[in-house]
Amino acid sequence: MAGKNIPVAIVGVGNCASALIQGIFYYKEKGLKAVEGVMFPDIGGYYPWNLEIVAAWDIDARKVGKDVSEAIFALPNCTTVFYPEVPRLGVTVRKGKVLDGCASHMQEFPEEKTFVVAESKEDELEDVVAILKETGAEVLINYVPVGSEQAARFYAEACLKAGVSFVNAMPTFIVSDAEWGKRFEEAGIPVVGDDIKSQVGATIVHRVLTKLMIDRGVPVKRTYQVNFGGNTDFLNMLARDRLKTKKVSKTEAVASIMPYDIGQDNIHIGPSDWVPWLKDRKIAYIRLEGELYGGVPMSIELKLEVEDSPNSAGSAMDAIRCVKLARDRGIAGPLLSISAYTMKHPPEQYPDYVARQMVVEFIEGKRNR
After folding, report:
1. Which residues of the chain have pLDDT under 50?
2. Do residues 16 and 58 make contact, with C-beta atoms less than 8 angstroms apart?
3. Which sign, positive or negative, has the C-alpha torsion 52, 92, 82, 107?
4. What is the pLDDT of residue 1?
5. Alpha-carbon span 157 to 164, nearest angstrom
6. What are the pLDDT digits (tens) for 104-150?
7. pLDDT at 35
8. What are the tens digits of pLDDT across the range 269-290?
């Protein structure tokens, strides 16, 4: 029944999880009349405060074994604390399967900046499945680090076995993969992914500017987007071998707006560097070059500065509530509308204004996916 709490499990109790959970209680205190900073305050009778965290996994010794309400503020988390009074949730962070969830180079940095892998026993696949079933989790959101391909698929597999919806916030191609999508559909489970697209982040701004130029008859000739920040995500991405799917995801998100191929040498999108003192602040520089009437050159340059994790939390909150609405309606498989609107690498790409209208129609019951 719409309006009840949504039992949510989280993998990776990092900055993104911290922002998401703080927001649940922030908006609960503000109430419906003051829901600002949220794209869809009401999704089928589910509000931001209807999310209920029932299970969580991490691998860091400073988080494993602690209540989620304490773990979200533990190092190396460094996002803005906008709601410090998160109540005790009675949910203990369990140690997840490490697999490729911690890049080897991370151990070269001070402990306060990176992971301290817990020595306790890891949860195996059957343990994760059992916990999901015992807690009644209906949705699991995946926040494992970029490049954790094995770990992401491990939790996707657990969701399939437990009948739990998978919201993939990371750039491992699962929901957008035809084989995985079919498996979830055959299992009767709605899913959303891949790779969370922030409310007003570098990707959405880049897409909007690209669409503007194209709609105004200005062909895009060259473009780049470089990002840097000081959180663990950017530190993790210093290992360039972990960035293959991330670069593909971000590049396709922008290239899909163009009705022509400008060539791989003329489009560069990807993380640039880690600047520790920025903490959870992310800075993006975007440049587009094109030609006006008569072939006269023009360019746009823009600097975007945001607090990275809260910027993605609103999209995650909407994705979770949409997938719950799909469960209520008996809809299975990848949800094309909310995936296109909140993810960089959805099963099908649409212009953002089209994707938003698709989400509105989905919420109203006029669209199945």
Report:
1. 1-2
2. no
3. negative
4. 40
5. 10
6. 898 889 888 888 999 999 999 999 999 999 999 999 999 999 999 99
7. 72
8. 987 799 999 999 999 999 999 9
Q: What are the CA-CA distances from residue 12 to residues 56, 98, 115, 219, 313 (Å)?
A: 7, 11, 11, 41, 14
Phi, psi values for residue 228, rounded to 5°? -150, 155
What letters, b where the CB count within 10 A reaches 16 and e where it falls short, cover 79-90?
A: bbeebeebeebe
Q: Which of 116, 17, 23, 21 is nearest to 76 (CA)?
A: 116
CA 139 to chain centre: 14
The pair phi, psi for residue 287, each rounded to 5°, is -135, 135
Instruction: Give long-range contacts, CB 8 A cutoff, 24+ apart: 23-28.
Output: 23/48, 23/83, 23/310, 23/313, 23/314, 23/317, 24/48, 24/49, 24/51, 24/53, 25/49, 25/83, 25/85, 25/86, 25/87, 26/82, 26/83
Cβ 194 vs Cβ 176: under 8 Å:
yes
Identify residue 45 by its one-letter amino acid code.
G
For residue 156, give every residue at least 6 positions away whose Cβ sits within 8 Å of its Cβ, in sequence order, or none. 142, 166, 168, 174, 180
Q: What is the pLDDT of residue 243?
A: 83
Q: Which amino acid is at 341?
A: Y
Concatenate the DSSP letters of all residues of 282-344 into one string: EEEEEEEEEE-GGG-EEEEEEEEEEEHHHHHHHHHHHHHHHHHHHHHTT--EE-HHHHHHHBS
